[in-house]
Amino acid sequence: MKPNVVIVHELYPELLKTLEQQYNVVHFTRLNSDADRADFNAAMAEADAFLGSNVKFDEALIERSPRLKVIASVSVGVDAYPREALKARGIVLTNTPEVLTDATADTGFVLLMMAARRAGEMERKVRSGNWSTSLMSQDFGVDVTGKTLGIVGMGRIGQAVAKRGHFGFDMPVIFQNRSSKPEVEAALDARQVDLDTLFETADFIVVTAALSDETRGMIGRAQLERTREKTILINISRGPVVREQELIECLQEGVLYYAGLDVYEREPLDPSSPLIGLDNVVLLPHIGSSTVETRGAMCDLAADNLNRVLAGTSPLTPA
Ligand SMILES: NC(=O)C1=CN([C@@H]2O[C@H](COP(=O)(O)OP(=O)(O)OC[C@H]3O[C@@H](n4cnc5c(N)ncnc54)[C@H](O)[C@@H]3O)[C@@H](O)[C@H]2O)C=CC1
Ligand SMILES: O=C(O)C(=O)CO
């Protein structure tokens, strides 16, 4: 009997075909409707394995999936999964580290550059026929090269952002991390500081810390009030690391100069969010790792992990 595999993700055709040859696959590109949800729940009742992302795996779903052996998440962040419940059931959780590090760090720099040069605002002006009003000094942004870069959470993605800043833009790097990282300090001529010092000192602050009970709400008004006149905050980790309502208020009041966000407290971002009406924020729809090559590599790694667990061997990247 072939194992049953539920997939909730777009896959490139060759990979889907390979998986369909090996398994009984029920495939959703995403769960769009109540009908999809009902079909998904029915499929999970029989599933041996799940591959995908953006599915809320609460304890009730785990209970309704009695045969489940492995969740191969197409993401590095695994904050959406109830670890204790998975452990209790012996379900293996895998993720996709490394292969998305560069694409996500690049997205951090897209946001940083767009915010620094107010590129979204300028682009909107050109499109609305207001070329000349973008040439006034009150519309100018700020320099990037040589400015101090502050990283919150110096893991894989944090280090990739820091490398871009250090080698590409001549930036002094400071960072805050849960554990000490002398090797990073040495390699990037960087300095590890506490969170308050980071917010007081950096010109650009890039949040790349994983979401956990410890980091949830770690950044709010108390930190933003410490920033300098033209500080820019970028969040490419998870929305709930930053207190979104306090961020909005600080942007509205000019306490924080500018922000660039790829992630939000609730996704998709509600169209009625005040963020959408603010000029001093660049908004992306959680596309940190969304390139053709990187998504392909993430799906390959997730599939390898799933194959290995179903074959009774250890996954390449257990979460
Ligand atoms: N925007 C997007 O599309 C993407 C977002 N991500 C997010 O980025 C996160 C980081 O990914 P990686 O760098 O690969 O993970 P990682 O595990 O290498 O790095 C996470 C870092 O956060 C640090 N950290 C944990 N608690 C902290 C605390 N209280 N204070 C300061 N630092 C703390 C850890 O020490 C670690 O260095 C993921 O967990 C995910 O949420 C990842 C990929 C794409
Ligand atoms: O990998 C992750 O954690 C993401 O957010 C999407 O790539």
UniProtKB/TrEMBL annotation:
<feature type="domain" description="D-isomer specific 2-hydroxyacid dehydrogenase NAD-binding">
    <location>
        <begin position="110"/>
        <end position="288"/>
    </location>
</feature>
<protein>
    <submittedName>
        <fullName>D-glycerate dehydrogenase</fullName>
        <ecNumber>1.1.1.-</ecNumber>
    </submittedName>
</protein>
<dbReference type="Pfam" id="PF02826">
    <property type="entry name" value="2-Hacid_dh_C"/>
</dbReference>
<dbReference type="InterPro" id="IPR006139">
    <property type="entry name" value="D-isomer_2_OHA_DH_cat_dom"/>
</dbReference>
<dbReference type="InterPro" id="IPR006140">
    <property type="entry name" value="D-isomer_DH_NAD-bd"/>
</dbReference>
<keyword id="KW-0560">Oxidoreductase</keyword>
<dbReference type="InterPro" id="IPR036291">
    <property type="entry name" value="NAD(P)-bd_dom_sf"/>
</dbReference>
<dbReference type="InterPro" id="IPR050223">
    <property type="entry name" value="D-isomer_2-hydroxyacid_DH"/>
</dbReference>
<dbReference type="Pfam" id="PF00389">
    <property type="entry name" value="2-Hacid_dh"/>
</dbReference>
<dbReference type="GO" id="GO:0016491">
    <property type="term" value="F:oxidoreductase activity"/>
</dbReference>
<comment type="similarity">
    <text>Belongs to the D-isomer specific 2-hydroxyacid dehydrogenase family.</text>
</comment>
<keyword id="KW-0520">NAD</keyword>
<feature type="domain" description="D-isomer specific 2-hydroxyacid dehydrogenase catalytic">
    <location>
        <begin position="5"/>
        <end position="316"/>
    </location>
</feature>
